[in-house]
Design a protein that fits this description.
The chain is of the alpha+beta class. Helix content is about 50%, strand content about 15%. The chain has 15 helices and ten strands. The strands form two sheets. The protein has a seven-stranded antiparallel sheet with strand order 6-4-3-2-1-5-10. It has a three-stranded antiparallel sheet with strand order 7-8-9, with no helix packed on it. A hairpin with a 4-residue loop joins strand 2 and strand 3. Helix 11 runs antiparallel to helix 12, helix 11 packs parallel to helix 15 and helix 14 runs antiparallel to helix 15. The protein is elongated. The termini are far apart. The N terminus is likely disordered.
Length: about 425
């Protein structure tokens, strides 16, 4: 039996227990941000590097600048964003060298939202800059924001990383960043592409190799060309800042911070260029054998239409991309095979009696390309070789059919 006094005492005791945390919380005040004696932490400047995303646009991740002024409760991220959303219009502007971008200021929490939604990881590198350099950096980025989306954008020379790298470097006063991983700095262009894209995105790697056959591979690219989020992620931890007076200090104030943990499970693509073009070659060999052995030609004709359509689109894309300033105009050895000339010859002269010889000439051109392509790249690019072999098979088949028809015509005559 509980006596009334005991009940009141227990109730009072429970009230004290529940009230104490509330009282303690009410009395607790936020810890004020403490400035260092030299006020060097009045502004905090850092680089945010996000993991790669699923979209081809983010295959190498994303890079942005974060600027904080804790005493003024200011925390902004500045991201180099394109003026157009991803889609056909953006792709057209990109291919023709007319894509534009600009720095967009976003609150820190607002900037994180899309990366949180996609469960992409993010790291923060706090830069060890002087207060004057950080103030100048904020002024410079404000000027960039004021320009709006009027600056050029491309994947090679003007992207989220090298534009930011140029802005930060311009604020260093008689100083410059110095990197120490020579295995990365001395990497040749094709090795560089293989490191970044070979496993992450086989299709973009295939396109990169398609576009780089004419690019010199005897010396590393300049750092401002090579730099990208993944590359910067590898270089920054050991980087230093060297002054003209010989002074050296770490480029980072503290070890890397993890802003977002990666929760994504990246599954490798089931349809890689290697598998697709190997399968295409098998199909081409099969329909060519059926055509030759059983004189059933409709499967071969269907494959010819597929090959001709894909070939034409790929050739035109290669031509546009290779001459546009967005990717750097350069010669490409694949032009020996992939060019608009076969389409023009077919449109103008396909009914001429000599047109069948074009298949023989084209077969020779493909063989030359197959030999040169692997020699120039210094390793066997099997996906390209399978594609070229499929085209070669059909060219030889057409040339053989033309020769048989000519021989039959002479015999009949």
């Amino acid at each position: 039996m509980i006596v009334p006094g005991a009940t009141l005492l227990m109730a009072f005791f429970l009230w004290i227990l529940t009230a104490m945390p509330v009282k303690a919380q009410a009395l607790q005040e936020p810890v004020p941000y403490e400035l260092l004696p030299d006020s060097s932490n009045f502004v905090i400047a850092s680089i945010l590097i996000a993991d790669p995303g699923d979209d081809a646009f983010f295959v190498l991740g994303h890079c942005a600048l974060r600027l904080q002024c804790p005493t003024k409760d200011m925390d902004y991220c500045f991201s180099y964003n394109t003026s157009l959303e991803m889609g056909p219009e953006f792709n057209l502007h990109l291919l023709t060298g007319r894509a534009k971008a600009g720095y967009e200021p976003l609150s820190f929490n607002r900037y994180l939202e899309p990366f949180q939604d996609e469960q992409r990881g993010m790291r923060e590198y706090v830069l060890n800059l002087t207060l004057d350099e950080k103030r100048m950096l904020w002024q410079q980025i404000d000027k960039q924001v004021a320009k709006g989306p009027t600056m050029p954008f491309d994947y090679i020379f003007n992207n989220c990383t090298n534009t930011l790298y140029r802005v930060i470097s311009s604020t260093l006063q008689n100083e410059d960043f110095e990197y120490h991983d020579n295995s990365l700095l001395d990497m040749l262009p094709r090795e560089y592409c293989e490191l970044l894209l070979g496993q992450r995105s086989p299709w973009i790697y295939f396109m990169a190799m398609s576009l780089m056959s004419g690019v010199p591979n005897d010396s590393p690219w300049p750092l401002t060309t090579m730099i990208n989020p993944i590359y910067l992620d590898l270089l920054l931890p050991e980087a230093t800042i060297r002054g003209n007076d010989g002074s050296v200090r770490p480029a980072l104030e503290e070890p890397v911070r993890t802003v977002l943990l990666s929760m994504r499970v990246t599954k490798p693509s089931a349809v890689t260029p290697f598998r697709l073009f190997l399968g295409l070659l098998v199909v081409v060999l099969l329909v060519t054998w059926v055509e030759k052995r059983f004189h059933v030609r409709w499967p071969a004709k269907a494959v010819d239409v597929l090959l001709a359509t894909g070939y034409t689109l790929f050739s035109l894309m290669m031509l546009v991309v290779s001459v546009t300033k967005s990717f750097g105009a350069s010669w490409n050895w694949l032009f020996i095979t992939f060019n608009p000339l076969p389409l023009l010859l077919w449109l103008c002269y396909r009914k001429k009696p000599w047109y069948g010889r074009v298949w023989g000439v084209y077969a020779v051109a493909i063989v030359v390309t197959m030999v040169l392509f692997s020699l120039i790249l210094r390793h066997m690019e099997w996906a390209h070789e399978f594609l070229l072999a499929a085209l070669l098979t059909r060219c030889v088949a057409h040339y053989a059919n033309h020769s048989v028809s000519n021989n039959h015509g002479r015999t009949t005559a």
